[in-house]
Specification:
Family (chain B): Belongs to the ABC transporter superfamily.
Radius of gyration of chain A: 21 Å
Number of strands of chain A: 12
Organism (chain B): Falsiroseomonas tokyonensis
Subcellular location (chain B): Cell membrane
Largest sheet of chain A: 8 strands, mixed
Membrane topology (chain B): Peripheral membrane protein
Keywords (chain B): ATP-binding, Nucleotide-binding, Transport
Largest interface: A-B, 47 and 47 residues
CATH architecture of the largest domain in chain B: 3-Layer(aba) Sandwich
Oligomer: heterodimer
Bound molecules: adenosine-5'-diphosphate, iron/sulfur cluster, magnesium ion
């Protein structure tokens, strides 16, 4: 049994000008200890998916349907009390902007300690000792002094380390990281990704990494889910996804990012464009969500939504025309 | 090229005073840009890269005279413009235009596209009559590949990428020689970013524009640029033609930057240089080499003596300058003597 099973998740929002189908029937699973990346452009529903897993979506205006099974238990049927016991304990989350999720008036030590006292009933002293240990673990120098500092006294990279320390304090089985390095500079991003890789080996938590950066995906993920306009359009092991993307959207996405070193290899002088725009989520799209921008689209694509189909072992894509392994090119 | 550069910047400085204390006097300064020099030839793209806060935008704003300079000279086509009174400056302003990062805040929401584009045309007295104005508006929309009738719409009716096209059209309206793009594609989504990058490249070729391309995205920079200048804490630490910079970085900071960019290729083996700590404050930059607190190669001299930019031997080509004491060491002891780019980037 997978650690997490997201089954036909549908998270819609009621808005003044119609229903926003932010997440519209998304399924995937996460095995214990693995790193799954969810990638896609802004607005495709990545954060809403993450917030739905933790039941952090305000209802109303939101409405969640489907099932989210964590260790076999459907979180959508859990009571608020049960969810509080799971959040920050068995499943924890780190966000893009640590400043908005850290409490500005509590010291770093208190914030790590709170989690431990709440979930593990630790004494104040034990919690503080553990906080110092956690800061050491995430590579914050002079941890004994730093536990007494407030978030505003730390740099962006240090704050993200603190967020990671808080998230890992209770040894969660699943860590959801929503664009954890997007707000950081590239040398600091390298530090944080390095830290996450290192901690994964030591702590063994499964990670759901949400990002729009294909470079980050290639570096840390084992498996990848590609989202587009509220739907999953492709899922594959990381090598298969980059070496043999099946969905035209994934192919377009990979073609549109330049690789560093292109001037040395003399590769592509022009980037591939995906023409047009992401469709509005407020319109019901009967066919393929990508049809309006896809070079291969036919009448079938605009009329009938393609099912997610296994095109190769572990590699699924929602496209009428993506080739199946072993099939002959038409 | 032996002809004079289009733009020449000499020892540019911009220090921002910090007011504080009981009497609100100046208690400290932010050394945002602290003595940098570069030039841009006609039709050339020079990119300015470096992490946030290193002074890139301040350089752009200083060139546009959005605030007075602390020191230095800016010479456009042979004429000094840094000390010119604003009346005389106007015709020269036309020749240097800007595209900003945020396509949402940089367009006036209460103006139709037509008025946004007509404003610079009128200001610089470019249109002979109203028919000419209309023709110019249509030509601008064609250039940025938007439908002509979109001039009658409002900014909020457009997506981020389309607004950036309008921003580019506005910059082109004055028929400039040089465009400053300050993170002009950074806020856009991947697929839309490619559209705008391609548009900028096409326009540059078509119109022979020079460009100062300010960005923190090294892969986009490499794709777009002719030359690159790398900034760290208000200083330029390295300048080189594209292939030299990416193929044979000659400054430890550049090397670390290149090695830190995640590559969209899973499973590649790369040499990783993970820098320690954070960028120090520009209010109190380190003595000696500003990079010495994070440099993996720093030695005694780096902590006391500031290295100056000077030409470096580079088998990949001419025009490579770097500010690092390592280049005074014998080649065998200089970790930057070989061309390590391909290895750092795991290509080729
Ligand atoms: N609380 C909310 N109310 C209404 N719409 C929302 C809410 N939160 C998110 N959305 C919408 O859901 C869609 C998906 O958003 P999100 O999951 O944040 O995208 P991303 O992939 O960039 O993380 C967007 O159209 C967004 O506007
Ligand atoms: N108007 C200002 N007043 C005070 N400090 C400023 C001002 N503008 C920029 N700075 C500071 O100058 C430094 C360089 O900023 P900037 O040029 O915006 O960097 P970049 O564009 O490379 O991110 C930063 O430390 C920034 O905080
Ligand atoms: S001068 Fe010294 S500290 Fe500065 S970059 Fe070179 S080796 Fe590093
Ligand atoms: Mg998001
Ligand atoms: Mg800037």
């Amino acid at each position: 049994m997978a650690l997490l099973e997201v089954d036909a998740l549908q998270t819609h929002f009621r808005t003044p000008d119609g229903i926003n189908r932010a997440v519209d029937g998304v399924s995937f699973h996460v095995n214990a200890g693995e790193t799954l990346a969810i990638v896609g452009e802004s607005g495709c529903g990545k954060s809403v998916t993450a917030m739905s897993i933790l039941r952090l979506i305000p209802e109303p205006p939101g409405k969640i349907a489907g099932a989210i099974r964590f260790n076999g238990k459907n979180l959508l049927e859990a009571s608020d009390k049960e969810m509080r016991a799971i959040r920050g304990n068995e499943i924890s989350m780190i966000f893009q902007e640590p400043m908005t999720s850290l409490n500005p008036v509590l010291t770093v030590g208190r914030q790590i300690g709170e989690t431990l006292r709440l979930h593990q009933g630790m004494s104040a002293q034990a919690a503080e000792d553990r906080a110092v240990e956690m800061l050491n673990l995430v590579g914050i120098p002079e941890a004994k002094r730093r536990v007494k500092e407030y978030p505003h006294q730390l740099s962006g990279g240090m704050r993200q380390r603190v967020m990671i320390a808080i998230a890992l304090a209770c040894n969660p089985k699943l860590l959801i990281a929503d664009e954890p390095t997007t707000a950081l500079d590239v040398t600091i991003q390298a530090q944080i990704l390095d830290l996450m890789r290192d901690l994964k080996h030591r702590v063994g938590a499964a990670i759901v990494l949400i990002t729009h950066d294909l470079g980050v995906v290639a570096e840390v993920a084992e498996r990848v889910v590609v989202m587009y306009a509220g739907r999953k359009v492709e899922e594959a092991p990381v090598h298969a996804l980059f070496n043999k993307p099946r969905h035209p959207y994934t192919q377009g996405l990979l073609g549109s990012v330049p690789k560093l070193g292109s001037s040395l290899t003399g590769e592509a002088t022009r980037l591939a464009e995906i023409p047009g725009l992401v469709p509005s989520l407020k319109q019901k799209i009967p066919g393929c969500v990508f049809a309006s921008r896809c070079a291969h689209a036919t009448d079938l694509c605009t009329a009938v939504a393609p099912a997610l189909e296994e095109k190769a072992p572990g590699h699924v894509a929602a496209c009428h025309y993506a080739l199946r392994e072993g099939a002959l090119a038409a | 090229m032996s002809t004079a550069p289009l733009l020449q910047v000499n020892d540019l400085k911009k220090h921002f005073p910090i007011h504080g204390g009981f009497f609100g006097g100046v208690t400290a300064k932010v050394y945002a840009v602290d003595g940098i020099s570069f030039d841009i030839a006609k039709g050339e793209t020079l990119s300015l890269v470096g992490e946030s806060g290193c002074g890139k935008s301040t350089v752009g704003k200083a060139l546009l005279r959005l605030f007075p300079l602390t020191d230095g000279q800016v010479i456009l086509d042979g004429q000094r413009i840094d000390d010119m009174p604003s009346g005389t400056l106007r015709p020269l302003r036309r020749r240097m235009q800007v595209v900003f990062q945020d396509p949402f805040s940089s367009l006036n929401p209460r103006m139709r596209v037509r008025d946004i584009l007509a404003e610079p045309i009128r200001n610089f007295g470019l249109a002979k009559n109203s028919a000419d104005l209309e023709a110019r508006l249509a030509a601008l929309m064609d250039k940025v590949r938007l439908p002509r009738d979109a001039v009658n719409r409002w900014p909020h009716e457009f997506s981020g990428g389309q607004r950036q096209r309008i921003g580019i059209a506005r910059a082109l309206a004055g028929e400039p020689d040089l465009i400053i793009c300050d993170e002009a594609v950074s806020a856009l989504d991947v697929s839309v970013k490619a559209q705008i990058v391609n548009l900028l490249q096409d326009l540059q070729k078509e119109l022979g524009l020079a460009m100062l391309f300010i960005s923190h995205d090294l892969a986009i920079v490499e794709h777009m640029t002719h030359r690159v200048a790398v900034m760290y804490l208000g200083k330029i630490v390295e300048v080189a033609p594209r292939r030299s910079l990416f193929g044979a970085p000659k400054h430890p900071y550049t090397e670390a930057l290149l090695s830190a960019v995640p590559q969209p290729t899973p499973g590649i083996q790369r040499q990783r240089i993970i820098l320690k700590g954070d960028v120090p404050s520009p209010i109190n930059p380190p003595k000696g080499c500003r990079f010495h607190t994070r440099c993996p190669y720093a030695f005694d001299r780096c902590r006391v003596e500031e290295p100056v930019l000077r030409p470096i031997q580079d088998a990949m080509g001419e025009g490579h300058v770097s500010a690092c004491h390592l280049h005074d060491l014998p080649a065998a002891q200089n970790p930057l003597s070989e061309a390590k780019g391909a290895q750092l980037l795991a290509v080729g």
